[in-house]
## 1
Amino acid sequence: KQEVTQIPAALSVPEGENLVLNCSFTDSAIYNLQWFRQDPGKGLTSLLLIQSSQREQTSGRLNASLDKSSGRSTLYIAASQPGDSATYLCAASSSSGTYKYIFGTGTRLKVLA
Amino acid sequence: EAQVTQNPRYLITVTGKKLTVTCSQNMNHEYMSWYRQDPGLGLRQIYYSMNVEVTDKGDVPEGYKVSRKEKRNFPLILESPSPNQTSLYFCASSLWATIKKNEQFFGPGTRLTVL
């Protein structure tokens, strides 16, 4: 059964730092992995989707990588800003012959001005 | 504007009183899904639908029902709500090109309290 883990649960960094958020999954036979951002009391905003055949995806200051063999994905945020403060979630598709999605519990990021 | 809408946004009810949370999308998406979010447990998938009249269980389907009679709508039904179903519920949809390209977009959430 697919399990998704995000460590650390919380992270505080000064403005301007480059940072990496981690997402680990137990079953490497995924179809895709998606990163989301969630602001307090709000819904989820899709950031990046990486297909199983891809190694990375980029959008602005964000870069997500995928290493299926090691069961890891990372979200790299360059030159962090206070507006990046939010909870970041990753979700991996289940490979059990169904089309389910398993979410990690998220990393709560605070960027200090 | 392309969006996923949910109604109601907030609901307080009592144990055993049947309720329905509606979800609608205007993007002609095939795939739709319901999740619940609980502190410490993250988001867990309740049900999903690949297309009209095609639904399947997620990881936590007990106590919930869904239907997909139209492509744009995917209501979540709680026949007999219990306090352990108090949660924040999200609906999501995606254009099903293939599962590899299944990028999900989320609604604003429905906060349900069952007393």
## 2
Amino acid sequence: AQKVTQAQTEISVVEKEDVTLDCVYETRDTTYYLFWYKQPPSGELVFLIRRNSFDEQNEISGRYSWNFQKSTSSFNFTITASQVVDSAVYFCALRGAGNNRKLIWGLGTSLAVNP
Amino acid sequence: EAQVTQNPRYLITVTGKKLTVTCSQNMNHEYMSWYRQDPGLGLRQIYYSMNVEVTDKGDVPEGYKVSRKEKRNFPLILESPSPNQTSLYFCASSLSGLARDNEQFFGPGTRLTVL
């Protein structure tokens, strides 16, 4: 069975702090895809990143970075120098190699960045 | 602009009154899907469609119907809504084909309340 666990339900930081959101996944597929989405208070889902299982290279995009480690089945997300606008719920998701492109979602981590 | 649109964005209705939530995409995507988001349960897939006239059940299809008569549209139908279908609904679409890691584009969400 496929599963995504985001152990941190809520995180609260002060602006400019670095924060890491954890994501651990389970799958038997040898090919799979991992995603991070952001859901701001307005409710829409904003795509942040996609990572393929055969590409363990870490990625940096501005203040955002992602650490993918197959050995520990983790795909963690770090925000450097957090800002109030980063306050949102962040979801990690997994998709297998099957035809149904269903995403298996973690329950999300609610991040509050306080001024 | 490439996008997935949903209508209505907000709806309050009463038990038993049939309703349809429309979803339309302008990216010529083959794959479309519906999710519902509930506190503590995350996002769960309701139905999906691999292409025109091809639909299949997701994880929580009970109480819902879908149709895919045209490539761009994938309406979600609640024949007899009940209060347990109060939720935030998302429509998503993506390309199919060999590139299985295609990003899923999400609509803005429809917040449904069934009294």
